[in-house]
Amino acid sequence: MAASPKIDEKKFEQWIGLQLRIGVLLAATIVLAAGIFYLKKYGGTAPDYHVYKSEPAELRQITGVFHSALSGHARGLIALGLLILIATPIARVAFSVVAFALERDWLYVVTTIIVLAVLLYSLTST
Amino acid sequence: MSHVLEFTLLIAGGSFLAGLLGSLTGLGGGVIVVPLLTLVFHVDIRYAIGASLVSVIATSSGAAATYLREGYSNIRVGMFLEVATTFGAITGAFLTAHTPTAAIAIVFGVVLLYSAWTSVKPQKDSAKVEPPDPIATRLRLDSTYPTHDGQKAYHVRHVPAGFGLMYLAGVLSGLLGIGSGAVKVLAMDQAMRIPFKVSTTTSNFMIGVTAAASAGIYLHRGYLDPGLAMPVMLGVLAGAIVGARILPEAKVRTLRIVFGIAIAAVAIQMILKGIGGKL
Lengths: 126, 279
Known about the structure:
The complex is a heterodimer of chains A (126) and B (279). With 126 residues, chain A is mostly helical. Helix content of chain A is 75%, strand content 0%. The longest helix of chain A has 37 residues, at 6-42. By secondary structure, chain B is mainly alpha-helical. Chain B has one domain (4-275). Chain B is 75% helix and 4% strand. Chain B has helices at residues 4-25, 30-40, 45-70, 75-98, 101-120, 134-138, 159-176, 181-191, 196-221, 226-246, 252-275, and strands at 143-147, 150-154. A two-stranded antiparallel ribbon of chain B has the order 1-2. In chain B, a hairpin with a 2-residue loop joins strand 1 and strand 2 (150-154). Chains A and B meet through helix 1, helix 3 and helix 4 of A and helix 1, helix 3, helix 4, helix 9 and helix 10 of B.
């Protein structure tokens, strides 16, 4: 099975590590920028997290978050940054499918696809 | 706390300290930030675990590059066990909706006590070489890791027990919004006899993927509040980055003991508040 040398696997993993770091950096930048915008707009209002009342329907769906962010809503923009953060490890698993396929390690291609399916199910189920 | 601005800055500062201490003690930011939000800031535990889970994804993914470069983490062990942790995480995230918050607080306290204990007790790498295990051999889990005397081979043992414990780690992660690194290390280091350094780094690499599995469900349930998750995520991430920088020079042993005792006290308070129905 191992057609390609082990060095390639290591390099690919390092590349994946870099991709994860970029994802986190991008998400943190968006959250920070949107957060400043949010504080400018709502900084003077009273916080209320003591009583749980869930989030508005818009911010509980992926399409709704995009819609809210595109409309320039501060909370929607933060939520978009959070979505990018959640997508980062999912993208990492997707890249691993490719890495194992390049190595022709089919057992792990299947294993990784199962993990990816669970992640996508969680993100898209309602 | 009169204004959102003041509240946000206080939460960001507290989360920074949680991320710093979580990184220095190896406990992780999540187990510290949830008690901080619930006990100090009186945030509902569902919002607290939502914000904490997001910060867990950020620190785990941000640190992964370093761990992958060092060559300790075992990608196959991680990916195989993620099948267990992601299924567990989904189970845990569903359980959160049907479990009274008081019960969540009690379970949280117990996990916190266990985590505090593992961070305080001395860690020893068993030098014993384990014989190969047929399941691990078939799954190609055996690997090598760098030591002072060059690459050292190890055999992975007791795969079903480790897989079962990993499912539990996933459930706790989804239920409590934490990385549950302590249970992951227990599964790999104690049950599967994987060298300690390989266990901790592989655990870190798995935490982000496990947390992403419950994050989607948290989003649909409305546990992810942008206004709260923003300062928590940024604070914990910044704290973890600073922690990783100063870790080589820090007197970790003393810090772990002092902090382990403090965390145990917080854990007991969480359990008592849960029993008293005050959370």
